[in-house]
RNA sequence: GGUGGGUUACCGAAGCGGUCAAACGGGUCUGACUGUAAAUCAGAUGGCUAUGCCUUCGCAGGUUCGAAUCCUGCACCCACCA
């Protein structure tokens, strides 16, 4: 199976501008680009698919360019959005662009020593570098002239907004010109002849292809991948508490791992195909195992493993797995503060003077309140009475339970838990 | 501006002088079950130095041995009439 057929088999090709794209790619190494929005200083699961697609291209011998939209981010892409986006200031954008570029190293190979079929390493480019210098008049004359308004009005991203109540500003309307020019610039400068993007980017991609033809009579290509959505129609990568980030400081490896472990049965097959680098045989055998015995949830575990390793490395995966073991019942003992701190990175903590552990010890009820697991002593008492309180993952059997130095799970920390999975640390200082 | 109705715990909603920390439903929490799922079932759901005490029923006063419940004033909301 050649590279493009593999992409198709994985469900990663939604639309392509040319039915022969596969042959074109197989003919020789190409340069391909995809854009990323610098709306935050970290990438999140929503942009994961794009990175993975570029990564696949690189592994297949092509050269990927990741374009971070330092310029377009100032405007705001209207595609797939129902309302005008608020604009980011330049400083924020620059910081975000740097943050994104750093994270991309996990996915793409930027090492100049490693060349892929003579194509060189991956590149990160900031479109502000080539767009920032335009004057308005120059832009209108050289670029704007090539865009018939009736064609622009026909784009879905524009039509849907004009049809709704939200309307659209001239600024957003102009967005597609900038992205179209990106493609033209990259084609001229880097020989980049293929743009890939999410299916909502189709309009912008074809705008770039048209512009390349008009300006330079040059044929370039585009393809889109499907948007990653869950079977219930909601967006992938979002939880009640917000987006799942690729930055370990924003979303811990454990939380990231857990997000994928909890993937619905209906979604996990597609995720394995699109997001992991497992072979079709492996995926097929996971599919078979799942329909045989869904409750083993092998697919979810494998998905979580693969993606956590990709995003957070082997060490991150190890932490996530250790944390998983602990969060799902293993008793906690004999750990050190540092390890415990990593495992419970997301967990809130309370403090108490160490002297409380001496003599009679610290009443369990007070400990629960101090750690923030109960909002009053009465609340804490109820939790204990109902059998919902745990010290280091061991159930507390009565209100007379007190905590002493023997309950320390590490040098200075006691792990408290209320219910199935609500944890808090109590630091004895 | 006039008349009538309302304002109750996280939300909705009963209560109309003592037995009201306040029915009921939702939510939330805990437990059982389970696939770290969904559904279901059970219990809990103001605070405390706790068989008792304290604070809550729009706000401020008053009547009464005793008020969420009665009276007065104020604020906000709804309906009808101007």
From TrEMBL:
Enzyme Commission (EC) number? 6.1.1.1
The alphabetized UniProt keywords are: Aminoacyl-tRNA synthetase, ATP-binding, Cytoplasm, Ligase, Nucleotide-binding, Protein biosynthesis, RNA-binding
Top EC class for this record: ligase
Which Pfam families is this protein grouped with?
SYY_C-terminal, tRNA-synt_1b
Return the motif ranges for 'HIGH' region. 38-47
Cellular compartments per GO CC: cytosol
Residues engaged in binding L-tyrosine:
33, 175, 179
Its Gene Ontology biological processes? tyrosyl-tRNA aminoacylation
The record's listing under PANTHER family reads: TYROSINE--TRNA LIGASE, MITOCHONDRIAL (PTHR11766:SF0), TYROSYL-TRNA SYNTHETASE (PTHR11766)
Biological function:
Catalyzes the attachment of tyrosine to tRNA(Tyr) in a two-step reaction: tyrosine is first activated by ATP to form Tyr-AMP and then transferred to the acceptor end of tRNA(Tyr).
Its assembly, as annotated, is:
Homodimer.
UniProt cross-references to NCBIfam families, sorted A to Z: tyrS
**Record-given protein name:** Tyrosine--tRNA ligase
